[in-house]
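hiii, so i know i said id send this last week but things got crazy w the move. better late than never?? heres the sequnce for the chain we talked about at the cafe, plus the structure i predicted for it. fair warning i was half asleep when i ran it
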Amino acid sequence: MTCIAGFRHSFSKRLAMACMLLACFPLPAFAQSVQEPVELTVARIAELETLRRKDPQSALQGLETIVSNVNAPDEVRREAAFVGAQIARNAGIDDSQARLQAHLSAASASGQEGSALLVKVLNAYAMAEKGETDVAWRALQPLMEELPFHLTPRERARVALVYAFLLDSAGELGSAITAYQEAVELAESSQMISLATRARLQLAWAVTQYGQNARGEALVRESLEDAEANQDQAAIIVAYTSLGMVMEQRGDLEGFLAMMTMAIDRAKQYGILDDLPVLLGNVAHYHLSTKDFKSAEAAASEALQFSLAQQDDDGISLGKINLGLAMIGLGKVADGRGLVREGIAMDSRRGLINDVAMGLEDLGRALEEAGDLSGAVEALHEARRLSDQIHRDDQRRAVLELQEKLNAERREREILLLNSENALKSAELKRQNIQRRLWWLLSAVFALVLGLAWMGMKRLRQDNTSLAGRNLQLRLQSERDPLTGLANRRQIRPYLQMTASQECFAGAVLMIDVDHFKRINDALGHAVGDRILQEIARRLRAFCREGDLAVRMGGEEFLLLIDGIAADALPKLVSRLLAQLAEPYEADERRVAVSASIGFATSPLKCMTRIELDVVIRLVDAALYLAKSEGRQRAIGVRCVADSGELDADGVIKDLAAAAVRGEVALIRVDAYGTEVST
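okay and structure toks below
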């Protein structure tokens, strides 16, 4: 595929924005003089909301009528103002947005806490539009616990969807999935069918990005059924688009094209044209990948026209690149190259360095196929320079994160050691103090020496027993991880001495690391993170047999030593462990999605006359970090090492992937579904 994945960066942001608010039927804009039942009024809000993409003016007119109705309940007017402010912001209708937000601000000033919270939500949403997504979700995080006290369940569902969107935009995918699930549950419990549908669509795309394609597709199809049952055309278009994205993720390009075509036809039929340039761009990408340049030119040209009419910079740059690539394929090399360069220049001016690199790579390949070798070399060299820059930036961030992790572990060890030393000193001082008191009493009153001696010796024996128990407790603490109760590093050597056969451990070595654990701590707090680590330890203990050893190496990293397992049974064992660790975790009455990556090998390794266990562990650790670099929630194992004299273990461990290419090691890749790939 040449270009299908190229649109994903800009389209995923548009998909998230498209799901934020959808709409339904208009209401006449006249003042209501009598109070209507709350159920009828909130139903009108839902109906007006589905008009937000096709006819935002009518939607805002009806919502402002509800807001201005002084006979309507305060919570209904507040919800109408909140929905209307979002619609007005997305549609660029500033005067209506100002009036609706002013209503909320006035209610907040009069002491309505619910209105004050909604004003803060709108302000966070505005920060996200300016690119400050990390600041935006952090601003909302402390407010989420206050929602049940000041907002109705309907309003909480809306705020939960905004909060999930901000987390998603900031790359906090695990926390976003949890927030989307909460939004779906709140919307369904409040019978907000349209809101539940679009929250489910957002959840589907998030879990698909997390690698759970089957679950993502099931959620999209469920949302599509709900949208068709309610004839919610905007939601149907987004559902078709999301389903196409899921199909493209699993390699079904024909299904991808069919879903995009259905979304385009539905958008044109009902006049919902916001995302039409991106949909047409997707079709152009497909035709470029199949080298149907004539069809690609037609789709890209139509997309560019819509983008120019809407003054959409994302769509214009994407349209120019697609149209230029199609023209190059049709032999119009000079004109096509110029259009692609214009699109790349637009992305460069906006600082989209990843999009620029992808555009240059596509241009280089297209020019190479068209015979313009000098132009191809120039474009590919530019792409390589940008890719190297991106890689260096990623490496720099990884090094800083690793250094912080090592510093935290060192501080933790120092604190534990200091606490142990203080406890021993305190016990020793207590014992010495008792001895001094005993000798003072013996020298002071000889007449009571026997009685006092007996009492003192009894007290001394009790304290010595206590001290012995304390020393035993400290020894056990030094051999066990205090948080999880698993063994620590000190237990590895005694275990190997106990289980080793003929001076060599025979079994399996598994190194496990929890994916994105720092995000869980940042989003949910260290208390929740500790409970998740305790639950992971519980699952590892249940997974191990009686003769196996589970060790917490530090932080979110664990080691399993499985005694006496056959090499051919190990991949299935690892796949089962991946699946068990990926099952949802319960923390503070919320479900948290967690996954792990694994490196593994058998000991002794095949194809080697002799290899030390510590080298095997280092190889397994290198396999673990290779698994994380290839996408996480997977496992990579070292099947065997080439038997060719002296093994450069340090060289192999430093770059395991390169060693596999050179044939120095054989690797096996396993996922939670049991798929095995040997390299």
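btw The radius of gyration is 32 Å. thought thatd interest u
miss u guys!!
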